[in-house]
Amino acid sequence: MGEQTEFEEGQKAPNPGIYTEVGEARSFHTEIQNPKSIKMKKGDTFPETTNKNRKWKKVEKARVH
To answer: For the region Disordered, what residue ranges are annotated (predicted)?
Structure first.
């Protein structure tokens, strides 16, 4: 079982970082325009999203190999 990557309102942030809203479908056709982003510390509570079908996901930097 993997680590949780999407979070809902009221859940606690597992790690510090910047989190952004993501939609239900991960298709480029339904990409969210101007998603809300927030800076969180470990243990902070996620706020409400702008749409009930959205969740919070940590913004990852591109990995360099």
So the answer is: 40-65
Q: For the beta carbon of residue 32, count every other beta carbon within 10 angstroms.
A: 13
Closest CA to 32 of 57, 5, 14, 2: 57
Q: How confident is the model over 6-47, as pLDDT tens digits?
A: 999 999 999 999 999 998 655 455 567 788 999 999 999 999
pTM of the model: 0.78
Q: How far is residue 41 from each of residues 28, 29, 33, 38, 44, measured CA to CA in Å?
A: 29, 32, 25, 10, 6
